[in-house]
Amino acid sequence: MRFWHAIKDYVFIILVVVLIRSFIVTPAIVDGGSMDSTLADGQVVFINKLAYKIDDIKRFDIVVLKTEKDKIIKRVIGLPNETIEYKDNVLYINGEIVSSNIKFRDTEDFKATTGSNEYFVLGDNRPLSKDSRMIGNFKKEDFVGKVKFRIWPFDKFGTIDK
């Protein structure tokens, strides 16, 4: 009984940490340059795993997605039932220009469509990014969570500006 009394606080702390990491928030390391200059290789971010259980996926959200082989960080560009087109570095959704204050690398012209429950994602560094242009659209169940906070490097610690 003394042994349990001595370790119960530690067991509780470990249990809480495991539950938080499993269901609420977990850290991730950015691997590669596909999100430059928003996120750089080696930076550490928090993935909010609850975000899309309580809120909708929005255009320009930075997200972590499951692929067949691993997890990737990208930006949501197309929402369900949309036609996405880049023409002369201008984004068109369903034929209408969509403006953004986000700075992307040049994007080659393309056109794509999403079905119901499908999302189109791109990396911010388009020439280096393996994204929906190659992999295809993603379904809501492919979303691990939303990335909104960077914890490393310390000089960039804080909320990630879109």
Description:
The protein has 162 residues and is of the alpha+beta class. It has a single domain (28-159), classed as Umud Fragment, subunit A (Ribbon), CATH 2.10.109. The protein has three helices and twelve strands, in the order H-E-E-H-E-E-E-E-E-E-E-H-E-E-E. Strand 11 and strand 12 (158-159) form a beta hairpin. The radius of gyration is 19 Å and the shape is elongated. The model has no long low-confidence stretch (mean pLDDT 87).
Describe the structure using short key phrases.
Umud Fragment, subunit A; four-stranded antiparallel sheet; 19% helix
Secondary-structure blueprint of this entry?
Blueprint: H1 2-23, E1 25-29, E2 44-48, H2 51-54, E3 62-66, E4 71-78, E5 83-87, E6 90-93, E7 96-97, E8 110-113, E9 118-122, H3 132-135, E10 138-139, E11 143-152, E12 158-159
> What is the CATH fold-level name?
Umud Fragment, subunit A
How many E strands?
A: 12
Average pLDDT: 87
Q: What structural class is derived from the secondary structure elements? A: alpha+beta
In percent terms, what proportion of residues is strand?
35-45%
**Number of helices in the DSSP assignment:** 3
- Count of domain modules: 1
Low-confidence stretches: none
Quick take:
The chain is α+β, with helices and mostly antiparallel strands and 162 residues long. The protein is built from three helices and twelve strands. It has helices at 2-23, 51-54, 132-135, and strands at 25-29, 44-48, 62-66, 71-78, 83-87, 90-93, 96-97, 110-113, 118-122, 138-139, 143-152, 158-159.
